[in-house]
Specification:
Layout lengths: L2 H33 L8 H13 L5 E3 L3 H7 L8 E3 L4 H19 L4 H22 L5 E3 L1 H21 L10 H13 L3 H35 L1 H11 L3 H27 L3 E3 L4 E2 L4 E2 L25 H21 L6 H25 L12 E3 L1 H22 L45
Helix pairs in contact: 1-2, 1-4, 1-5, 1-10, 4-5, 4-6, 4-10, 5-6, 8-10, 8-11, 8-12, 10-12, 11-13, 12-13
Length: 445
């Protein structure tokens, strides 16, 4: 595949990612435009709404202004003024990451990896800017700079990671000097520091993803247990079939955001649904809650066993360290100094806290006017608590088992048999007779 075909192929992959991301919300909205509104509203309204949803899913801030009738219906203080929405619908960002990983693997199969990556990222950035400009409206105005940069940054990271994880080795001559420079730079770092840093990075990421996994399971359990409350909220909204389907799709897009909320709950600080509210392992204080069916799964009041959830990051951090410990100890010679193990454990805490803190920052912000200006977890508190819990648990996990002795090449024990000296037996005098059964010669006299 020549250069022009590689660039065209990569640009098509990027355009496909943008089309899928926007089309997920545009398709049901278009059906609603035809079936429920009878084509009486300009379709561009639904296009702008889909683009706004896609941009919000990548962390782009947007300023909304409600018409007086809608503001009065909400009954929230400040609903009649312009308000900013900063919370991310992380389902769309997750979709971009998955599709970006796929695009990176496909681009890595070409002979011009660097050109393909630049073409894909550049095309995505241009399309992201264009769709942002197409969604500008006095009542809903996303940030132009963030709309061009944030989705592109997420896609670029996914493409690079996908190309690095491709099974097909890249043959692009332009990549080799870059890789050689990175390899030489890493080789200049002391080997022990590299091993400890790699263990801290892998362990911290594993611990953070472990907490998120536990949070996803716990969210599913809460929805299953409080299914009746979720159904009551659906019935109270009196939505038609299309409205209920659109609401369900919107909640599915918010599922990754809700999972991060539950992860913040497991870490300890919890999260808020409006100013003055708090949902934590020890107690839940809620004010007026938006009529979103999935919020019917929230616990209410004090929980006698809520503190058990705080064990999740501790156990996950300990297990991650225990699994990585044998490889680290063996790589460090069998008897590494305690300071390296402690450094690796604390590094795991820093990485895990940083990851969970960044995820909490993306899953929090303003979701509407009035008291909805503060929704989600406190990113700084979640990051600090997660770093402390994972770091202490990981350090204990690395120090818990006794240090193994270095492998020594010992000589095999051989059993030497001391030969016993047999006493010489007196030789028998020669006889003229031969051995029995043999005829002896007769010596003549």
């Amino acid at each position: 595949m020549n250069r022009s075909l590689t660039a065209l192929f990569a640009a098509f992959e990027a355009a496909l990612v943008v089309a899928i991301g926007i089309g997920i919300s545009l398709a049901p909205l278009t059906i609603m435009w035809a079936a429920q509104f009878g084509f009486q509203i300009d379709w561009i309204v639904f296009w702008r709404a889909s683009v706004d949803i896609w941009l919000l899913g990548h962390g782009v801030d947007a300023i909304f202004t409600l018409d007086p009738a809608t503001a009065a219906t909400l009954g929230l203080a400040g609903a009649d003024a312009a308000f900013r929405v900063t919370i991310a619908i992380l389902g769309f960002a997750l979709l971009t990451v998955l599709l970006g990983l796929r695009a990176g693997r496909r681009v890595a199969e070409t002979k011009h990896l660097l050109l393909g990556e630049l073409a894909a990222i550049g095309t995505f950035g241009v399309l992201s800017l264009l769709v942002t400009l197409s969604a500008l409206h006095p009542l809903a105005r996303p940030s132009i700079v963030q709309g061009a940069l944030l989705p592109t940054l997420i896609f670029a990271v996914a493409v690079v990671v996908g190309s690095l994880r491709a099974r097909v080795p890249a043959t692009d001559a332009a990549i080799k000097p870059i890789r050689a420079r990175i390899t030489s730079w890493l080789a200049a770092v002391p080997r022990t520091v590299r091993l400890v840093a790699a263990t801290a990075l892998r362990g911290g990421l594993a611990a953070a993803m472990g907490v998120v996994t536990v949070a996803a399971v716990l969210l599913a359990v809460l929805v299953a247990i409080n299914y009746a409350g979720v159904v009551r909220l659906y019935e109270g909204l009196h939505t038609e079939v299309l409205g209920g389907a659109a609401l369900t799709l919107a909640q599915l897009a918010f599922i990754p955001t809700f999972v991060i909320w539950v992860a913040a709950w497991l870490v300890g600080p919890g999260f808020a649904i409006g100013v003055g509210s708090s949902v934590s392992p020890l107690a839940t204080t809620l004010g007026p809650v938006p009529a979103i069916p999935i919020l019917g799964a929230l616990p209410s009041g004090e929980s006698s066993f809520g503190f058990v959830g705080l064990l999740a990051p501790v156990v996950v951090g300990f297990l991650a360290a225990a699994l990585l410990r044998p490889g680290l100890v063996q790589s460090l010679g069998g008897r590494p100094p305690f300071r390296w193990l402690i450094g690796a454990g604390l590094g795991m805490g820093v990485v895990g806290g940083l990851v969970l803190g960044l995820l909490s920052a993306a899953a929090s912000g303003a979701a509407g006017p009035g008291r909805l200006a503060m929704v989600g977890p406190d990113a700084l508190a979640v990051g600090l608590w997660a770093a402390l819990e994972i770091g202490v648990a990981a350090t204990i996990g690395l120090l818990a088992a006794p240090r193994t002795a270095p492998a020594e090449h010992t000589a095999e024990k051989t059993t030497t048999v001391t030969p016993t000296t047999a006493e010489p037996t007196p030789s028998a005098p020669p006889t003229s007779a031969g051995t029995p059964g043999e005829s002896s010669p007769i010596t003549p006299r």
